[in-house]
Amino acid sequence: MDPGIRSQRIKKIYAGIEEEAEGEDGDKEEWAGDVEVIIFLNATEPHVDRGFFYITGATEGVFEGAVAAIYPDGNGLLVVSMLEEETAKKTGMPLHIYKDREEWKERVREALGNPGVIGIHGEELTYSSYLKIKDLYPEARIVDVTEAVSHARAVKDSGEIERIKEACRIASRAAETVVEAVAEGVREHELAAELSYQMQKMGASGNSFDPISAFGPNSAEPHYLAGDRAAKKGDAILLDFGCNYKRYASDITRTMFLGKADREQREVYETVLHAQQIGIDAVEPGANGADVDRKVRDYIDSTPYKGKFIHSTGHSIGLSVHDGFAINHKIDLPLREGMVFTVEPGIYLPGRFGVRIEDDILVTSNGAEVLTTAPKDLLEIL
To answer: Do 24 and 9 belong to one domain?
Structure first.
C-alpha cells in the first residue's frame, strides 16, 4: 500500500475517536484525545481482524498472532512471525519479527514501548487476545475504538472501490454462467460448487461467504446454505453468493424458476424487483439508510405480502461481506459518497418458495451506481 494512503486511513481513524467518544450528556470521554496507540491483534483463523488488512493493505498471508500498531501521526508498524516475514515486507511497514510465543512478548514491548492509553478494535478482538494486551500492559488504560474504525472503513477510497468493483464483476459473470448448469436433477450443493469454481476460475481468491443455493421450499429460508435437494420443475432457484478479490468482497442474489413461473411466483418476483428499484432510487449522499429501508418495506407492506420481508434491506460491504452497518429503519445511517452496501429485499412464503434480489451499490455524487450487473428480468429455465 502507498504510505500516503495508509497515513490517510490511520488519521481518519484517529479523527473519528473524539467524535465517537461523545457521551449522552454531551461531554467527551476523558480519554478521547489521549489514545497513544491503537493495536490490531490477530488470533488464529477465522479470528483475524479485517481492520488489520485495512491498515496494512496486505492482500496475501494469514497473519495469525500478528500485531499492527498505528499512531496519531499516521505512522504504523507490524509485529509478525518469521512465517509471515516475506509477505509482511510487501506492506512497506516497519517490521519486528518474532520466532516463538515468548519472543512475541519481547518484540511487542520493544515495538510499542510503554503506552499509557491503548485503543483496541474490540469488535474483532478475541477475549484471549485482550488478556494478552492486559498482561503486557497491566497499568495502561485500554479503550475500545471500534466505532471510529468502523466509520473510517465505511467510506471507501479509490483503491478499495476498484477491488470491490472487480469482485462484483466476477460474481456477476458467475451469475450469468451458472444458469447453464440449472436443470432438473441438479442438486443444491452442485450449483454452489459450480459458483465457487467459476468465480475462482475468473480470478477470485475464494468465496466471500458460503454460497446459498436453495431450491423450492428451501428458498423461503433466508440463510439456508446448500443441501442435497434436487431441482424439480416448478422450483424457485435462489442463489446468493459472492467472492473475494484482493480481500474485498462482493455479494449478489438472483432468483430464477425451473419451468414456467406460476401466477404467484411471478407476482412475488415482480414485487421484489420493484421494491429493490425503489431502494436503489432512494440512494444518494445525504439520504439516510433508515429511510431507504423504510421505503422498501412500506412498498412491500402495501402488497398482499405484508410482513413477508423479514430482514434488513441491506448491509455495508468491503473487507467483510457484512462490513459493519445495516440498512435498516431502526438504524440511523447517513449515506456518504464512497459507501458500498447491498440492496436486497425479499419475500418469503414458508413451505412454498422465496424470492430475493440483491445488488451491491456504490454511493456516488450522482446517486447510486449498481456494481453487480447480472440480468434481473424474470428468468424461466424451460
So the answer is: yes
